Automatic annotation (TrEMBL):
It is found in: Nucleus. One of its GO terms (biological process) is positive regulation of circadian rhythm. GO terms for cellular component: nucleus. The keyword Heme does not apply. Belongs to the EARLY FLOWERING 4 family. Residues 16-74 form the Protein EARLY FLOWERING domain. The keyword Nucleus applies. This is Protein EARLY FLOWERING 4 domain-containing protein. Keywords: Biological rhythms, Nucleus.
Amino acid sequence: MLMTTRDSSSGAESSRNRALIQQVNDNHRSRVADNMVKNVGLIQEINGNISKVVSLYSDLSSNFSTFFHHRNDNANAKPTN
């Protein structure tokens, strides 16, 4: 379930970023000064969203590695009688 939550979170961020990038492109093509100023905030939001996704996948990688490390430790443990 945790992976599903992460996948949906990263998917939502990616979808949001696609919409933001389209808006940035539209604003840039318009060459209207106010739209160019709006792009600063939009690009900052895109960067923040990318950071969130990177963090999610970094945590996932760490958790995955820890899981298998503990699994191998348990498999290699000598039985106690």
